[in-house]
Structures are given as C-alpha cells and as structure tokens.
Amino acid sequence: MAVVTCPVWSQALTRPDAVAAEHSGGAVSYLALHRRAQALVATLSDQGVQQGQVIGTVADNCVELVVLAIACWRAGFIWAPFNPRWRGDKIYQQLLELAPDWVWADKVSQAILTDTPFKAVDISYSASSSSVAGCSTLNGFDCCDADPEDIDVLRPFDLLQTSGSSGQPKFVAHCLHNHLCNAKASSDIITVNQDDGWLLSLPLYHIAGMAILFRCFNAGARLVLTSKDGDLPGHVSIGRVTHVSLVNAQLFDLLMALPLPKSKLKAVLLGGSAINKAAIAEAIDAGVPCYSSYGMTEASSQIYTIRHKKKDHPRCQDRNEYKVVDAPKSKGQILACIDVTLDEGSQILLKGDALALGYWQQGGVVDFREQDGWFQTGDIGRWDGHVLTITGRRDNAFICGGENLQPESIERIICAYPAVKNALVVPVADAKWGQIPIALIDWKREQREGLDDWLGQRVNGLQRPRQLMPWRYVRFNNNKLDRRATARIVGELIAKSSD
Fold first, then answer.
1. pTM exceeding 0.70
2. HEC secondary structure over 407-437
3. Range 443-468 burial, b when 16+ CB lie within 10 A, else e
4. Where in the chain is the domain with CATH 3.40.50.12780?
5. What are 59-94's pLDDT values in tens digits?
C-alpha cells in the first residue's frame, strides 16, 4: 500500500486561513474545507457508506461536490459523477449500468431518483454527526475513520465516463496517485502557486474539470467556482482568476469579450477537442497566454502541451472576425508522468503513472493495458519536428468511393475559412459512394457565401462535403462532440428530405 498525506490537510496545517475555494456564496479556507470533509466522512459512515462502495452523483459543480471528492479520497469511497444535463432516461440507464451503492442528486435533478432502485445518500456535512465530535479543532481528525496523513493512493477513487464520441461511454477508474502525478507534471509546464486562482470552468464529471481540482490543491491555490450564469468573461475580467481551462466554444466567448480590463491571466489551457487555429492566433495577439493540450480520461487529463508564443501579424480591428493564420508552433512537451510512442499504424500508445487503473466493469477494475504494458488510445498522430499533431481517431475514419477519409482532416480545412467558428464532418450512407461526408457548420458571422467554392480549391472531390448543415443538429456528450449521435440525426434528416 502506497500512502500520502492529503494535500488539503497539508495546506490546512501550514496555511489554515488561506482561501481554498471561492464561490458565489463566499470563500472557504483550507482549514474549513478540511473540517467539512472530515465531517462528511463521519456523516457518510453514519449512513452506512463503506470503503470501496460507489457513490453516484448527479449535479452541477458546487462546493458540496468538492467536499465529497476530498471525503472520498480520504475514506476510500468511490465517487462516480454523472452529467446532470443528460435526459433523465439516459442518466437512469447509465446509473443502471454502473449500479452504484449510493446516489445523490442536487435539487434540480432530484426527480431522477423518484421510484428508482437506488439508495439515496445525504452528502450534507453535519458537525453534529455522532463520530465527528472533535473536528472543530485543527487536530480533530483523530476521531474520524479517515486519516488525512495515511491515505492509500492506489485504491480506486473515482469513476469518470469517457466522452463516448467514438462509441459507448466507458467508466474509467482512477486512483489518487494518477491525479496527483498528472497535476505535478502539469505544474512543471504551467506554473501554479499559492497566490493563483484556477477557474473551475469545466464540469467535475469530466476529466478536465477533475484535473483543475488537483492542480489547485496540489499547489495550495484557489479553486474558483463559476456562478450559475457561467459568466466566463466576467470572472476573468475582474481579475479573480489567473488560470482557466477552456474548450473551443469557450475560447470564442472569451475573445468576444476582449479587452479584459483587470485580467491577471497567466495561462489559458485549451483542449477537449480541436481548437480553432485562427482563434488561438487572435488570443495570443491580444496578449492572452495560450497553451493547447492533448489529453484523455484514461491518462488523467493532460498528456502533451504546447505553449503558443506571440507571432508578429497585424491586429484584427473587428473582434467578430478572425484572421486565417496558423497558430504559432513551438516545441511541445510531454508530461513527465507519461510515456508516448507511435505504433506502425501511427496510433498513439501510452504508459506511465498518470495512466488510470483501467475500466470499471461489473463492480471491479479491468486493466486496459496490452501485454507489453502500453495503452492503445485509438488516436492517430504524427511528429512534425517537435510538435505532436493529432490527425484523428482511427474509428472515425470512413470509406467514400474506395478512399479512406479522416473527418478531422476535412474539419481542420473548413475551420480555416474566415467565417467558420467550428465544423463537424460525419459520414452518411450513400448507394453510389458507400458513405459521403456531410459538414455541420458553426458560423461566426452572417456572411456565409463562398465556403463551398473555397473548399473546392483545397480538398479533392471525395473529401468535399456534399451538404452544409446547421450546427444546431450537432449532439454533445460530456461537453464533447458526439459524432455517432450527430451522424444518426443527419442521416435521418437526409433520408426524409429524399422521400
């Protein structure tokens, strides 16, 4: 058994009054966060929750979930957060598949638990709990079952779902060691210190959101929870945050709010999917420090990171437009906790301490490594000098007229068009060609003419999308594009229109 001292407890001992988390209701110190976590351990134990049991939650980001995370890694409970924005029936089916021992839902999602077989648990941390009598003092943890100085970091801590963008979502089991290794290696590239605040702009049921939690507590920084309205530019403008993690759509929201008068931004970490290169160029031109990353749930978030440096080019006067220029390239860095190699088919393979325990199936962990210890990601890549380029996923490719098409390659070309914010290319069955590409476009502005002719000069006849459809048909899963669900909808729409 490998043990470690809880990072929140370490901060509470040395900096008890330092702010650990900020939210719309105020601020919570590291000492207060420690006490709340200890109280919750006792409360959950009083309700019958035992080490190794799974607690499923259906809720948006909130302080209660942060406290639950700390309680789980201390007591050996296993946390499985679910996306509350899924349809009720989808959450119900996912809960049935996982079969957690306990379930908690916030007020918005409480209806999901009505007339279900799941045992409800209360995660409110009551100081009156029978076994928490001494936790009002700094050293009161001795009376609780969980000892912050003696945590087994190799036992399962959380079950996070993959995006499911290339098939059915899987539950990935991480231990505390996985998360802490990734957080430490990330800080070697993006420095985080005790005076910094990282905005929790991504959900805790997603690996990128969970990673923010560990980066903050590992460094003793402030975790800044967004308000209910999710005002990302507002949080950044008033200088509450120094670090923020964004997906492509959030980067555009930030750029539309430029300039940010009181911004103290030190790092904007971009990831989750392909990021619009022109948007990155516009961001760094405006002085926004950008890092783009490649990561995945199975590797506890970051794997590879590029710091983008400012490139001399004319400033864009109209913030509603983005110049078509490649984002500057500099030498990327693989995190120290991960080994990366490419196999003969250019598939990316991974090893290392940040690699998760495996997939959770039928109440236990099933290792996903091959016999040689490498994990096959399914992502296809290539090295361009010191830059790792992700060209797509192996299982996204489709055949059109006998040619193997990679939709991500077509999407990158479409996104270079000035009026396009984002694009998704999906295959649809066709009697003549087998499958044909259809493009869904997220436009930046109303001037949309000319894209088809522009593409005709940059892609071959088979790669050229047969139709351009509105972005509203795109479906998402865990904040990531759901290619298969979108392809089904597009296929049905095209079939209907041809009847």
1. yes
2. HHHHHHHHCCCCCEEEEEEEEEEECCCEEEE
3. bbeeeeeebeebbeeebeeebbbeeb
4. 3-333
5. 999 999 999 999 999 999 999 999 988 877 888 888
Length of the chain: 499
From the CA atom positions of the chain, what is the Rg in Å? Answer: 23
Q: Token match 């066709």: residue?
A: 430
**What residue spans of 53-175 are helical by DSSP H?**
63-75, 88-98
Among candidate residues 394, 454, 407, 475, the one with its CA nearest the CA of residue 435: 407
| Two tokens, residue 482 | 């759901």
For the chain, which residues score pLDDT lower than 70? 1, 125-147, 163-168, 227-230, 311-331, 445-448, 478-479, 499
Report the SS3 class of residue 332.
Answer: coil
Q: 95-123 pLDDT, tens per residue?
A: 989 999 999 998 878 877 777 788 999 99
- Separation in Å, CA 379 to CA 247, 308, 421, 435, 436: 19, 23, 23, 22, 22
Q: Which CATH class is domain 3-333?
A: alpha beta
Q: Where in the chain is the domain with CATH 3.30.300.30?
A: 397-498
Give the pLDDT of residue 233: 77
Q: What is the pLDDT of residue 163?
A: 66
Kindly report the CATH number that applies to the domain delimited by 397-498: 3.30.300.30
* 342 class by beta-carbon count within 10 Å (0-12 exposed, 13-18 middle, 19+ buried): middle
